[in-house]
Design brief:
By secondary structure, the protein is of the alpha+beta class. It is about 30% helix and about 30% strand. The protein is built from 15 helices and 32 strands. A hairpin with a 4-residue loop joins strand 4 and strand 5. Helix 4 packs across helix 15, helix 9 crosses helix 10 and helix 11 runs antiparallel to helix 13. The N and C termini lie far apart (about 75 Å).
Length: about 700
């Protein structure tokens, strides 16, 4: 048998721009019909080896190298992928040209010469710069002579042959966490081991584990980190700069199900009649020191991620729920800011310092609200004073243009199979707002403390840019489609203008969906070393200082405060280091938001899947050429009504008015319209629900 691989490569090197389909190529090379299968297999083997490339249309040839580009690989469920570069390029990668890359990997890509008719560049993965992960949720299957792990989601396209069960014995079809120990090219199955058994789909934490793995949220700490944490014990340091304020009445106010407590508050009236407000934050930086395994793990996580039945902590629980947590009656290390505030809610001065505190009471929001409502209970005098100050702070903030997106959040009541039997609004009382106002003020003043020491002083700020003009115009168009009377406020866009316009809109329609549309108009808040201000809050200065147990930037802010309190300002390398931390922290926050959003979607789909065939009322939340989306009242579930399921008519889409119009009946379905729909189909893992119209409600 001839060596067809050599024959193919020799011909193509002589004709480098040539592309052929396999049968065309066989004709050109005069391959005997009885040897065609061997020739065809040789072509495909060369593709697997990366020596030959398969282009769109099933044509084959050599690659015309245009230089290597770098980016993040985004895997499609159908097996192909796109690589997104920092320059904004979007490069198509066929399944044959993925090498061993999987979703989220940072890869090098070599570009193929592309036809002018092709929208995107095409290429192949030339190298893996860094892996996004090597652990995948899979289903376990025992075959005749080996065990196989099949990835549960499309991020990894190749199965894993299990070579080490690590003493674990999963049942057929169980979900497992598998780690790849050997990445294999050419479509060959990878080799790996079992790290843990998750169980069946109805185990309590299944959805959270699945979503965490999909979004590459770390699920374990390194051995070095665990060893470091095991050696940490609580002790009061011999530090003359740390003030002992254990005699003041400070306390925490948190949700009923809180696991960690990182902020305490105190208040008293001064002789001048001013408010002396104290915000005392757990001194996590005392335990998590820079460039240690614990610090590196915390930076990788960036933030804690919260699900209904599962929490992925940024820090090991010994720290987050014990040593750093401001538990009732326990001495704890803190970073404090004491603020003197007048009757007009203006902060006259503040003092930032290291402290030693003792939490006198661990309140829940519910308990505080009951005390405020009844006018009696533990620390009722202090709580009344706090409530009064919070009202003044809230008014001042609103007067200065701060925008409140107080959107309702879902709360799930789960059965023993982790399926929601009820979705309700998470309770929000005035006691929540008291704590929020104080945290906003503390964050504002800590940022001011840093900025007023000079613009060259390295620091991490929480910033929020002005919305883009196109987003503002689109928002006004949406409000018009809702039938709301609102006039464009003109340029430049200011927080005050946006706030006043939103208030006018909400007086006409208080739907939470209106608030969500306004929020989508905004740019995403992020971390930065530049103090450009916060548009949504209308603050010139803002940072994150109040949650170092669950957010990495807050931890870094504490470290910086300690340096600047000592007068240590200048380190040439610090600003670039902080810039990288801000970038990574912003990405980790976005990752957590996306994971939590997908988790909510899955839980909502699980809930509505138990109501197939039932009728719900809702609001049309989006309109497209193929149909419209409906958000069901009170349960946060959104589904799609397909155009072809509507009554017999021809439907025309009006993109300017966000409407579907029946050409025969003149029936109109438009944004914001109240409708009744029936649940007809659910795809839980893809987060999709299909509805059909029942009747329209005027």
């Amino acid at each position: 048998m001839k060596n067809y691989s050599n024959i193919i490569l020799k011909y193509l090197k002589a004709h480098p721009q040539t592309r052929f389909k396999i049968k065309q190529f066989a004709t050109i090379l005069k391959i005997p019909e009885n040897e065609y299968p061997f020739f065809r297999d040789s072509v495909k083997n060369l593709v697997r080896e990366g020596k030959l490339y398969r282009f769109k249309g099933n044509s084959y040839g050599l690659m015309d190298q245009k230089g290597e580009l770098y980016g993040i690989l985004d895997m499609h469920p159908n097996g192909f992928a796109f690589v997104h570069t920092e320059a904004g390029d979007k490069i198509f990668i066929s399944q044959e040209n993925l090498a061993t890359a999987c979703h989220g990997d940072n890869v090098g890509v070599l570009i193929h010469s592309k036809k002018s008719s092709s929208k995107n560049k095409e290429g192949h993965v030339s190298k893996i710069i860094s892996r996004s992960k090597d652990k995948f949720v899979c289903t376990y299957h025992k075959l005749h002579s080996y065990s196989l792990a099949i990835p549960a989601i499309h991020h990894l396209q190749t199965e894993i042959v299990i070579e080490n069960c690590n003493g674990l014995a999963p049942a057929e079809g169980d979900y497992i966490m598998a780690r790849i120990t050997e990445w294999r090219k050419g479509g060959n199955r990878h080799k790996g081991e079992i790290l843990s058994i998750i169980g069946k789909e109805h185990v309590a934490e299944f959805d959270a584990i699945m979503v965490s793995n999909k979004h590459n949220i770390p699920d374990s700490f390194s051995d070095a980190t665990l060893k470091q944490v095991d050696e940490i014990e609580f002790s009061i340091p011999d530090d003359p700069e740390r003030r002992d304020i254990r005699d003041i009445n400070c306390f925490t106010i948190d949700p009923n199900d809180a696991k960690d407590y990182d902020d305490a508050i105190s208040i008293e009236k001064t002789e001048e009649g001013y408010y002396l407000l104290g915000v005392h934050i757990a001194d996590v930086s005392h335990y998590v020191t820079e460039s240690t395994p614990l610090d590196e793990d915390a930076l990788k996580r960036g933030t804690s991620v919260y699900f209904t039945d599962h929490v992925v902590h940024m820090l090991p629980e010994k720290l987050s729920t014990e040593l750093c947590s401001l538990q009732e009656g326990q001495d704890r290390l803190a970073m404090s800011i004491m603020m003197t505030i007048d009757q007009n809610a203006k902060c006259l001065k503040y003092d930032v310092f290291k402290s030693l505190i003792n939490n006198k009471r661990q309140f829940s929001y519910t308990e505080v609200q009951e005390i405020l409502d009844k006018g009696k209970g533990d620390f009722s005098e202090e709580l009344e004073l706090m409530s009064d100050l919070a009202k003044r702070l809230n008014k001042r903030r609103k007067d200065e243009g701060s925008i409140d997106f107080d959107l309702p959040e879902p709360e799930y009541i789960l059965n023993d199979k982790a399926v929601p039997i009820e979705i309700k609004l998470r309770e929000r009382t005035w006691s929540h707002h008291i704590v929020e106002e104080f945290m906003l003020l503390a964050n504002q003043n800590v940022a001011n403390f840093a900025r007023t020491r000079g613009l060259n002083i390295p620091f991490i700020y929480r910033i929020h840019d002005i919305p883009e003009a196109d987003s503002i115009y689109e928002w006004f168009a949406l409000m018009d489609a809702f039938g709301l009377k609102v006039s464009f406020f003109g340029m430049p866009v200011t927080s005050k203008k946006f706030q006043k316009t939103l208030e006018k809109i909400l007086k006409q329609n208080e739907s939470p969906y209106i608030m969500r549309l306004a929020l989508r108009t905004m740019t995403k808040a992020k971390y930065s070393v530049k103090p450009v201000g916060h548009f949504g809050l209308a603050f010139e200065d803002y940072t994150h200082f109040t949650s170092p147990i669950r957010r990495y930037p807050d931890l870094v802010v504490h470290r910086l405060l300690k340096l600047y309190l000592k007068g240590h300002y200048f380190d040439p390398k610090m600003k670039s280091h902080l810039k990288e931390i801000a970038k990574k922290s912003s990405a980790a926050e976005l990752r957590a938001i996306q994971a939590e959003r997908e988790y909510h979607k899955i839980k909502q789909m699980r809930y509505i899947s138990t109501h197939l065939g039932e009728v719900f009322s809702g609001i049309i939340s989006g309109v497209a050429a193929g149909g419209f989306w409906v958000e069901l009242d009170n349960v946060f579930v959104e589904g799609f009504v397909r155009k072809d399921s509507l009554p017999n008519d021809f439907w025309d889409f009006d993109p300017k008015r966000f409407q579907l119009i029946g050409l025969r009946t003149k029936k109109v379905y438009s944004l914001g319209q109240k409708v009744n729909v029936r649940v007809i189909k659910i795809d839980i893992q893809r987060g999709r629900a299909d509805f059909e119209m029942v009747t329209s409600i005027k």
